Amino acid sequence: MQEPRAAASHLSVALLLIAVGGGLAACGGGHSSSAGAASGSAGQGSSGTQPTSQTDVVTYKDDVLRTGQNLTESVLTPSNVKSATFGLLRNLLVDGKVDAEPLYLSQLSISGTAHDTVFVATENDSVYAFDADTGATLWHVMLTASGETASDDRSCGQITPAIGVTSTPVIDRSAGPNGTIFVVSMTKDASGNYHQRLHALDVTTGAELAGSPVEIAATYGATTFAPGQYAERAALLLENGTIYTAWTSHCDDAPYGGWIIAYGESTLAQTGVLNVAPGASGSGYANQGPAIWMSGGGPAADASGNVYVLTGNGRFETTLNASGFPSGGDYGNSFVKIAFASGTLTVTDYFTMSNEMTESQNDTDLGSGGVMLLPDLTDSSGTVRELAVGAGKDGNLYVVDRSSMGEFNASSNNIWQELDGVLGGGVWSTPAYFNGTVYYGPNGGAMVAFSVTSARLSSSPTSATSTQFESPGTFPVISANGTSSAIVWAYENTTPAVLHAYDATNLATELYNSNQAANGRDQFGAGNKFIAPAVADGMVFVASTDSVAVFGLLP
Q1: CATH value at residue 218
Q2: What is the pLDDT of residues 470-489, one digit of tens each?
Q3: Could you count the other beta carbons within 10 Å of the beta carbon of residue 496?
Q4: What is the DSSP string of 464-500?
């Protein structure tokens, strides 16, 4: 897997966007999470415009489907998101690169005062909580134990100069005494040993909760998880009281496999381990991987608790067992569906393209992009379809039926829909969905929209931006008030970085970008790859290399 080239513990946490379920400590087990608004009286934002609802952003791309849509945004509209009335409110400086999406809790009570709180995690192993309305630091913690630092970059330029917190954390507002943010950190100790740890932090103080942190260690058959060999690029998933971590390699430094390691959120006890590449043992595409990285996208989950990932290039057995699954359990370049029951993670279905061996040999990953589940759709015969979409380096858009994903066939791809070559230079990003439209931001090309009719995507884009997004492309998110006032937000990885806003019904209509205002008023720092904005309560949160910018209606 090669990424595109882009122009006792203390604690630090970064968080923004929607609420996921679950419980830690005294709150017990969790439940499925989805995007939505919390009830309660609204607080005044920086613009003086009072939201009609509060929205939490607690997980990557707003919900466990990974749609990227916030449907409770009542402040920002296509008419007021323009440079005369909308812009940079403040820039929250931090101590390292911000690769994780910020998270957000509205009206969080800290020491008796309600704060709209944004959480930011850095590659320096810091987590911060800021008051989004004033910029005040509410708390800041380090996730390094005594004598430790953030990890070096493992001689790989993909996450550099340090590796601390890379993946987007997840928040459960109902867990623990005040709510909990779960974070994975990587550190290096004075003896040169590497550590991966899962932390559970109180959202009001940053303090470690009981039983936190836990060292991440695992075995699967004859394979053992080696913490120094892996990074957690993929966002955390919290589903039904279980936290899922997924792991990738440093560059293509073998050996590495495709680990998914699960923990109970109430105890942080390890509850399940799966390696989707247990046969990987050496260098070369036939022996290595596949890893799970998805450009920072998170594993997705359906209403039944099944978990979905896309894997990178690597080992796959074209010899299938009696059930039609690869005989050695190695799933290179695949959609993989995973069930969790009785302490066991099991692959229950999959799809692998017919030319997997060629694509793997050429480092043409499917898992360079993230997976997204679509809401239930009805086809032309009246049948309800449960679909997932994914795309990677080959530029093809794959749509699979989650009830029968297609498995592997050497002569054809037996899936719901395949749109070949529609994503130009390939995908190193994650898609979004809103109101019958799928949005993709391919590498080096325009962001494009595909309409969905009778459970099928249009054969070509129905609209596109004039902006061509540099490597790695862009990670769209949508804000809307129900189905109205919809805006697509996109990040451009340039220096300075650029925040764009487009009319969701026609991407050719740009409403705003952060280079429009005179004298660099809205510029906020150097660009970074794999950045997804977060939108809530009239504010847009977007990361740079050393800050998180807060945009909103100008005073």
Answers
A1: 2.140.10.10
A2: 999 999 999 999 999 999 99
A3: 15
A4: EEEEEPPTT----EEEEETTEEEEEEEEE-SSS-EEE
CB atoms within 10 A of CB 155: 9
pLDDT tens string 494-540:
999 999 999 999 999 999 999 999 999 999 999 999 999 999 999 99
Encoded amino acid at 54, one letter: Q
Residue 422 lies in a domain: yes
- Cα distances from 104 to residues 66, 120, 122, 232, 466, in angstroms, run 16, 9, 16, 21, 31
Residue 269 in contact with residue 263, Cβ under 8 Å? yes
The total number of structural domains that make up the chain:
1
- How many Cα atoms occupy the beta-carbon half-sphere of 380 within 13 Å? 4
Q: What are phi and psi of 163, to 5 degrees?
A: -120, 115
Quick check: bond before 533 cis, omega within 30?
Answer: no
Domain hosting 357: range is 25-553
Measure CA of the first residue to CA of the last residue in the chain; give whole Å: 46
Backbone angles phi, psi at 335, to 5 degrees: -80, 130
Least Cα distance to 394 among 414, 421, 432, 374 occurs for: 421
For residue 184, CA distances in Å to 12, 225, 547 come to: 11, 15, 20
Q: Residue 209 falls within a domain, yes or no?
A: yes
Answer whether residue 84 is part of any domain.
yes
Structure tokens belonging to residue 470: 């540099």
Which of these, 194, 179, 172, 199, lies nearest to 9 by C-alpha position? 199
Per-residue tokens: 34: 């989805």
- Rounded CA gap, 201 and 212, in Å? 8
Q: Which residues is 244 bridged to in the sheet?
A: 237, 262
C-beta atoms surrounding 420 within 10 Å = 11
